[in-house]
Amino acid sequence: MRLPLPLKPISIDWLYQRFAQSLALSWISCPKAAKAPIPQSAWQWPYIQFFNPLRPAPIALLGPPEVQQLTQLNHGALAQSFKASHHSQGFIFSQHSKTDSLPNLSKALAPRPWLSSPLSANQIFNQLANYLDTALAPKQSVHGVFLTLFGLGVLVQGRSQIGKSTLALALLEKKHQLIADDMPYFKRLSNSEVIGYCPSSAFGLLMVPGLGAFDVRQHYGQHAVQRQAPLNLIIQLVDTPLEPTLSPNVNYRYLLGRRVAEMTLPNLASDNLVILMENTVKYFLNQTAAPTAAIDPLLLCDALCAY
Q: How far, in Å, CA of 147 to CA of 156, rounded?
């Protein structure tokens, strides 16, 4: 079941309300702190992980192995373990782990909320980690058109009216896919991959000069659109000719803290630009996948600089 993204800061009680049924959660201890919003500064990835005082996560998960280890600690060591994990805002015990075997546990955890579930630790982890990675992912909107070409997510940028949407329409004729036009959104998942997607209100629409809001699905079918894709390459369209080079020039820029490859193409007549666009993406794809490319970089450079 797809859950809505939070409209306000997340609390442990907020998570309980949304996962009580799917995770069969029950409160072991529910202090007032459970309703307090978790500070933004506390949400550092990974958002949930198994209890580890040395690397505490905002939400700590304890299964039978973790509880068994804690039972071997004396009162002082147990208190020190939970003191060291002060960044953890809440604790979840999987498989209804026997917390009554830890007489000092309630005292150590008293200021913070803790829950129990009959499910395995892996089941709890998968549900919460997937949701939190999406709900808390840093997001940013960017001007441009986001498409997939040959399986790569490509963001096309350039000045207003340079022809980004017209180029996208021509690429749809070549069986490529549209993700978002004008203002695609990007989110960074798990401190690594940047995913581009389209707001639901604009999904499948392409603003084409003279055509207005062009319904891609109606004219090309469902296969012509895609909900989201990783961002692999940014292509900048420019009006000026490019200087001759011995190999295509690949630059890099940062989006949401992740380095993304960027290439520049001259704005050509539509048919030539489609061919150049496809070959540029193929070149990039081959360069990142294998040491030898199927496209001669010198020929590509000649094409880039010929206009």
A: 8
